[in-house]
Structure formats: C-alpha cells, structure tokens
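Data availability excerpt. The first of two example chains:
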Amino acid sequence: MAWIDRQGRLGGKISVIDLAAVGVVLLVLVGIFLVPGGTGSVAQVGPSRSVEIDMIVRGLSIARPEELVRRGDQASFIVRNQPSGTLKIKNLTIFPPEVEVPQPDGSVKFMADTRSQTRFLRDMVITLAGTAQVADGGAVLGNSKIKVGVPVELEGAQYNLRGSVMDVRVGA
C-alpha cells in the first residue's frame, strides 16, 4: 500500500497540502510564543545621573523668542521622532543675524544684518538639564544614545523646535 494516493492524500484521508499548511501555522505560533525576542534596548544602561545637553537651532523664523522659550520651563525632548522624556530649559542664548564685513586692514568684523528678510531670523543655543541613564560613557534618553550631531526636537506648549545636539555633559 502506498503512503500517498493519486489525489495527493496521506493514507487516503488527509491532503498533503493541508498537512503542510497546518505545519507552517504551528511553526509560526511556536516562533511567536515560545522563542524569546530581544528587549529592544539600544545600549546597556547604568545608573541615572544629571546631564546637560546643548541644542542648536539654526535659522528659526520667530518674532519674540524671549517670550516663547523661557528659562525654567519644562519641554518634551524628542530624539529621532521618539519621545524621550521631559527636560528643563536651563539657559537660552539668542544670536541675532550678523554678516561678516571685511576691513581695509584684512581683518573681518561682524556687523548686524539689516536686510529685511533677516529681521525675524534667529539662531539659538538652548541648554537643557535633566537626568539620564549612563551607558558606555554617554547619556541615554528614551532608549536613544545622545551624541553630538543627533537631530532632536524640543516641544513646548506653543513651539516645536528642531535642531541638533551640540554638546553633552554627563554629571554636570
């Protein structure tokens, strides 16, 4: 007696294709429920320490930056479109637009840019303070390691500022 008949049935009762489909479903279920997965953590984190992050925002069109972003306010910190906690605004430095003016002696002097298109254009350096996990000598906020050059966002009640990390000080 043959194991598989002319219609492709095993023992004359079960289709080989149906048996293969059931086997695939069982393997998928075993893979989902019994095989452990990764934790999704980016870095092995250590103890929490205080951290200061300098963020630079370039070319922001804003009318009254002093009234919008204030020292002492809390703001949401977003790294690579992932919320990474809340940090306190420790310091805010606003740079008005300037142009380089060459001098007759060959030196360069910075003067205020009086062009109308730069009237509301500002660069800002925002110092943020908070606590972060420490891993491999760097700060980790919300499963993202904070490094110089990482694109970040700062979101408050009336603003969403996009910039990049300029400096990270752990234990400051």
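And the second chain:
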Amino acid sequence: MPQNIDILLINPGDHRGTYQALGTSIAAIEPPVFAGLFATYLQKKGKQVAIFDVPASQLSAEAAVSQMLSEYAPKLVVLVVYGLQPSASTQNMPSAGKIARLIKEASDVPVMMTGTHPAALPERTMREEKVDFVCSLEGPVTILKTAEALAAGATDFSAIPSLWWKRSTASGPLIMPPQSAEPLIADLDGEMPGIAWDLLDMRRYRAHNWHCFDHIDQRAPYASIHTSLGCPYKCNFCCINAPFGKNAYRMWSAETVVKEIDHLVQHYGIKNIKFVDEMFVLNRRHVLDICDLLIERNYDLNIWAYARVDTVKDDMLAKLRAAGFNWLALGIESGSEHVRDGAEKSFSSQDIIDVVRKIQAHGIRVMGNYIFGLPDDTHASMQATLDLALELNCEFANFYSAMAYPGSQLYGLAQQQGIALPEHWGAYSQHAYDCLPLANANLSAAEILAFRDQAFNTYFASPRYREMVQEKFGQKVLDHLDEVLAISLPRKLLEREA
C-alpha cells in the first residue's frame, strides 16, 4: 500500500534530453538541494514529506510517476524546478511539465510548481502546464500554507501569499493571481537548517568530472549545499533572484554550515562537496568563519565554490586552501571589457589575469566560465574571449552561449527587441540538440552556437592545456578528456545552417 504523506516534493529532470550523450557518465548528478531544504522546513512544521529525485532515479517520466504513485499517497505534489546551477531551471521544464501531466492523468492529487522558472513566469506556467498551483516566490511558506488549506478542505486560496491558483467557474477554471507576497525566510538557521539528507539515496550522486581531476575514478559519494541564498549583483544574463523577488542575500551561520558538513562526512563518508551559492566568496567574515571551522576538523575535503574576480581577497585564499577548497569557479564571461561592462562585470582583463594567477599560486585550481553571444558581442570579441581563455589556461573551462533565461534582464530585452526566443523550454539547455542561443545585432544564434562548440574543442585540444593537465593530473585525466572530446553533440540549429 502507498504511504500516506502530506507532501511529495519532486525533483524533475531528464539527463539524456538536457545533455545528450554527455548525460550518461560525464555530467554530474546533483542532490536536489532546494527540495531538500524545503523538506527540512516542512518537517519542522510537522509535515510528513518525501522526495522523489527523477534524474537520480534514471527512470523515464512514465516509470518515475508509476513508481512514486505506488510508493506514496500524497495530499499535495510539488514539482521543485531548479537545476544543476542557479540559472538552469528552465531546461527542466519539459520534464516537470510531463510529470505534472502524467500525475494528473493518473490521480486527482493537487499539483504545484515552484522554482526559478515558475517564479519568473507564473501566469504562463499556470496556463501551459497541468498544475493547480504555482508559487511565484521562494516556496516553503507557500507550500506549507497550501498544504494546510487543502487539509482544511479549502476551495478559496486567495489568502495564501505568492500562490497562483484556479477558481472553478461555470465557464471553466479562472486563473487567480496572489494577493500578497510570501515573506522570505529570515532565520535560515532556525527554520531551514540544511537539507533533509535522510530523504535522499546518497549512493546515486556523482560530482562534476573536473571537480575530481585529482581522483577521476572517485566522483562519488558527493553532496552539494547552500551557505547563502540569492546574490546582490545584477548580471544581465542571470535569473537567480527570480524566486526571491529582489536582489536578496541571506546567509546561514558558519556553525550551521559546518554542522551539515559534519553530518555528511560522518554519516555518508562525503569528501566531494559543491557550495551551490551563486557567490560564496563574497562576505569576508562568512567565508573565513567557515574556513576556520573546517580547518579545525581537518577533514581532507575536496570542495568547489563560486567567486567573482572582484571578490577574491588575498587573506581568504590561504584559508580557503587549508579548509579543503581545491577549486574556485570564476565568471570571466568575456575577453572584451566593453562586453563585460554591458553584462555588469566591470573589471579589466588584467584584473582577471592577476586574480587567476593569485588563486593558482595558493594551490587552488580555477574553473573559468565564458559566455559567447552577449548583447555587445561580435565575431572579434568572441575570438577575444577564446584568446583570453587560452592565455589563462585554467584547469577547466565552461563555454556557454548567451541565453535569455526567463527572469533575467536578457529575457526582457529579447521581448522588447523582438529577438527570437526558444519555442519550447528544452531549447534553453546549453547541450541539448535543439539549443537556441540568444541572437544579437551582430551575430545569429547559429553563429554563436557554432563558435561555442568550436571553442570547446579548441580549448581542450590545445597542446598547452593538455601539457598542463598531464603535469598536474596525469594521463588518466587526459584519457578522460579525450573521451569527452570524442562525443559530438548534434545541433538542430547547425544542421539547418549546413
């Protein structure tokens, strides 16, 4: 018999559709951190909660829905639509939409969507998806109040903050917007102190390949955690703050963060950890306090976290390295200062070079993030970006095409200027067959995508990069990279242009 529970939190996703052949063994399989945080909040409020992680299950949507409905009898289903990194929510909407439809076909349980994409486009999500509710802000408070209202037999949900819902009328369902906004949780330590790890099968998760270049065959066990929520910056390509309604930035205490790491190490033997924060290296005291507590424990961790070129300070680096931070990810974005300025990344190319070298001098590896096709990009500036990447020769690099993610400034810009946007949400995935980057005044979407794919191969095949990898990580990692380079991603857009 299915277990009666109050709320089933579902992490949607389709690794094969999102990453094509890279999804089989190359891409990371991440724990659903937001579903896990929401579960903790709801459990503390006395609710019976379960999590079903579809990507980790490696089941089709049909098989996943069949299994979850045979295991659980929830009073409310919530699809928590986030991604492997903060801007990657939209690419999971095809999976989320299909799962919602299958659940509604098989049962009468109410279904809600929450997450970055639904928060950015709540009314459209209500119209297009088979859902009863959409949360347009953070989520936990709205989920709790909706579950309580359903348990009380409510049919009017207008008093629930940030909840879009459907009122029954003689002419059919009428979409109702929220009358108030959900308050952001102020006391993260008290109300949402970490992830409900006991609801997850920790054997199923694996780290990014580059994160484990020092031990490429030991990508599991693995965990990812938040030490903060939100970001104070306003990069035009980013949609991270859509669920928060503003440029909010809140932190857990160092004690709460390290207590969670204690649990991961002691109960699951975790050493590979990702700090999911959009900007971990930001608040000096926060960073140093966490480092000090980890240094005391001497866990021999392998951590990576995000930083900005202009937030990395000398006094942080030695502490970060000693605490187990082996990698920092930097948003370098472009080799053109003009293009970076337009993306709200106002630092010089020399600043970038100096910071990368400074980080590496402390024994920390750098993962450089680059974007092709930003609004001011041209062929020349994209080449300058690739040239800068080759000059920096970071231990790993991610190459992205500019995307107008819902909730970002670029999405609004594209709508204002009539620039073509993807017709379906899967085309927002960087590695998908039907990936459609944002065109600009100088470059077509096909030109941007072709340059991105060529840049990836150029970088990882460059003799200087391969020599560095051989020296730092050995032949096994070089062989692994050759396996990655051998995977050619078919692109619908480029097939049309051929």
